[in-house]
Amino acid sequence: MEIDPFIFRLSIFILSIFVGYYVVWSVTPSLHTPLMSVTNAISSVIIVGAIIAALSGSDGVVFSSSSIYGFLAIILAAVNIFGGFLVTQRMLAMYKKKKKDK
Amino acid sequence: MSANLSAILYLVSGVLFILALRGLSSPETSRQGNLFGIIGMVIAVTVTFLSVGNFSSGFVYVLIFLAIGGSLGAFIAYRIPMTAMPELVAGFHSLVGLAAVFVAISAFINPSAFNLGTPGNIKLASLIEMAIGAAVGAITFSGSVIAFLKLQGIMSGAPITFKGQHLLNALLLILIIILTIYLCSTQSSNLFWILIAISFLIGFLIIIPIGGADMPVVISMLNSYSGWAAAGIGFTLENTALIITGALVGSSGAILSYIMCKGMNRSFFNVILGGFGATDQTSGNQNKEQRPVKSGNADDAAFLMKNASSVIIVPGYGMAVAQAQHALREMVDTLKKNDIKVSYAIHPVAGRMPGHMNVLLAEANVPYDEVFELEEINNDFANADVAFVIGANDVTNPVAKTDPQSPIYGMPVLDVEKCKSVLFVKRSLSPGYAGIDNDLFYKENTLMLFADAKKMTEDITKNL
Fold first, then answer.
1. What residues of B are annotated to the active site?
2. Residue B43 and residue B51: Cα distance in Å, rounded?
3. For B276, which of B37, B293, B334, B459 is 20 to 30 Å away at the CA?
4. Are B96 and B249 in contact (CB under 8 A)?
5. Chain B residues within an 8 Å CB radius of A88
6. Residue A43 is nearest to which of B30, B249, B356, comparing CB atoms?
7. pLDDT one-digit tens code per residue, B334-350
8. Comparing C-alpha atoms, which of B55, B136, B70, B68 is closest to residue B99?
9. CA of A68: which chain B residue's CA is closest?
10. CB contact under 8 A, A33 and B358
11. What pLDDT score does B285 carry?
12. Is B37 helix (H, G, I), strand (E, B) or coil?
């Protein structure tokens, strides 16, 4: 009997939870705020769904009832992607080590 | 682009996201990690464009909307003050949640675009995944909006509770499950809309009873939800990048919630059921005896610190409110010039989100290797001359170690009272969030400095 592709996706999902578990425990507590902003940015990869939805209109019709939701989702996800990565970068740039000469 | 190739590239971007989180294990590798994250996102978006392969006029609009959202996001990212980071993160979570809802709606209206079947005849598994993605997304959205309003101060941070609250939430959750089952058998779009509406309501209801100082848990929890919502949509779209990312973000938020709960010695359910701090008000007022308190001014504080050889700073949410982090750094610089050893002690739940204090100190150019977590520094208080508590309260309360009756009993606290002398910057003697008196105020070796944190710190620097 053939295995349903869903099972493969479920396997990826479960294994990723474990990867996430171990990776996040190794994050230093002082970087927990950047961790939240970066996870927020990467979860906006949901934009791939938004793009597919936005381009779902049939020939000539750009704004159909389903593609409008796609376009709205693109705006939301784009705010998050740019905002999330840039604010993370801004924060991380502030973490400095003690200067040796002090 | 062939389906196999794009699947592999989505996997690559998923792996890059893992590396982005991995980079955060130390500040040195973190910037590189963020870069990996950005590359992963660029790959995912590009692959999507190529595999849809529809470069008609719709494509132009996609780029326009992308640019609108992107510039808005970039603008916010550069303008936001670091003290407002909790609000920002809560706001961003709401956007992920709403985006998930929109994608799910779109997939429901036009399933053929996603290869999920035809309207009214959507594949069963897809429908379940869609319903889960939409419900969790909607909960994330309305919950984050409430968290945002509470953090921003637009809505009172006090818990809002009413009779039968938990029962109502439980009933609504059961209703969602029933609706999902009916949705699967009838494929009715009305049910889908009702499902989303109820999910919005639940998000709203589960966050209103949670008080301001429990926000670290709430934000982490919503972080987790936004991940599960993304994963739900990832299953619908059969997209590996989304599934991996959703799982990563979901477990990340869950771990942060756990760490925050542990920092308060409370169970996750205790926090979620809410109402903490509101009920204890009466018991706190009853035994309000007048105990003598020693209070001093900036001059006294400067004198004490000048004669110390080591000082430990304990910052809390009050420092963020007063925006005192820069003034604090200047004070520490002056102390260091006098050859006084200074370190910072951070309690896990200091501030309104995980790592909040660390970011503020980093912003004020405090080197991160002078900043220590509770376990790292707690033994040093006994050897330090002065503890300077600025804007923290409950996390220093020795009652947590001595009084089993206290609502915060068992919570890990900083052993501030073991210092030779304690300087406590605070506006008044009012109890902290937990609604209980802090024994530390009345200790022999405590000097209260009643003033605004920023003003007091500046005055001390002048007197040093």
1. 394
2. 12
3. B293
4. no
5. 34, 37
6. B249
7. 999 988 999 999 998 88
8. B136
9. B106
10. yes
11. 44
12. helix
